[in-house]
Design a protein that fits this description.
Distance between the termini: 39 Å
Strand content: over 45%
Number of helices: 1
Shape: extended
């Protein structure tokens, strides 16, 4: 039997200066990679009356990330400074470790995605069960690196 090797959690970070800072409180994220296409229909010259077949032309590609979690008052300035700015983002994919360390569950980062983008939305729903959401529109490519994040 074969099962997927899936992550248990994600950590979203934005680069501030030369250091990546965690968007604390974000508990889930959706990474969406798409290609945009144009359909073209071409007739078979041997049977011009036949219904033409579709040919798909790939025009471009894009990636977007949406995240949700909790409002973190301590990072209000971080969100304000990131909103609308071209920034470097990092998404860390983690898996829980099997054992507890001093009674606390630990995890290991098994890989990460890096990309440059613009945070286009930062939404807050306030109240006792307040939530935060953001959207990042990616620029160019989104890389994948297996293994832990380098410490340098």
């Amino acid at each position: 039997m074969s099962v997927p090797n899936e992550p248990d959690y994600i950590v979203v970070q934005v680069k501030v200066g030369s250091v990546y800072t965690t968007l604390c409180g974000i508990e889930s994220a959706t990474v969406n990679k798409t290609v945009n296409t144009t359909d073209r229909f071409r007739r078979d010259c041997a049977t011009p009356a036949a219904i033409p077949g579709r040919k798909v032309r790939v025009n471009n590609q894009q990636w977007d990330v949406t995240g949700s979690g909790l409002v973190n008052i301590d990072q209000m300035d971080l969100y304000e400074n990131t909103l609308g700015a071209h920034s470097d983002f990092r998404m860390l994919y983690g898996q829980y470790d099997n054992a507890l360390t001093d009674g606390v569950r630990t995890g290991t980062i098994v890989g990460y995605r890096d990309g440059r983008g613009v945070m286009t939305a930062a939404n807050e729903t306030l109240g006792e069960e307040g939530t935060a959401e953001f959207t990042i529109a990616g620029e160019d490519g989104l890389s994948w690196t297996a293994g832990a994040v380098p410490t340098t």
